[in-house]
Amino acid sequence: MNRIIPSSYLDLLALSTDTLTVRLLDNADYQTVHESMLNHTLKRIENKKINQHHTDELWIVEHQDVYTLGQAGKSEHILYRTDTPIIQTDRGGQVTWHGDGQLVVYWLFDLHRLNFGVRDLVSHAEQAIIDIVAHYLPKTLTVKARRDAPGVYIYNHAGDMLGKIASLGFKIKQGFSYHGIAINLINDLSAFHAINPCGYAGMPMAKLSSFGQFTADDMGVFITQLIKNIARRHAGLVELRPQDTLK
Q: How many CA atoms lie within 13 A of 124 on its CB side?
């Protein structure tokens, strides 16, 4: 098992701010977490109607192995069945996998209060990943987002796409976001062989540890850096960079 959120990382909770609460969920059952996210969001919606407000939250999660289908997910993107459960969910996007060695971050944000549009949310998520992943890549590689297929991808300097390292799938309900991003760190990529990742046949997947400058010892620093980057964006301290997106 390639666990990435051991109990020794509980000091990450100290990264919470007055307006953004960090939660850690290790070895988490997907269905349980999804129901908790939805119920939390519905409660926020109802409380906002009576002028009661909650702090936004980041949930740092490592799931038990699972395939999830987005709200409009098509079963034909599941190429063959395995022992891993398949769960229909209400996020955007098609089918993906979560499990050991993959970092999942759920963004439970009040977009209206942040003055974020959906595109702003997606771009901030992509660029937060880009900012941190770039530190662990050799100089011969680069990391970019794509307009035609949301997510984050690794490229060589010849412009060849080597693989998708992070997937995005959000749900927006009455101005509140939940679900979020999944970053492949030290996970076994063979789980993606059973699906068309995010609905793209033949999409190569990548993990950060494949590129020689990231190991399990870097996990705590990576997660800390990512939380801090997202928190700065949440506080309005980081502006979007249009040049991060490939045409």
A: 27
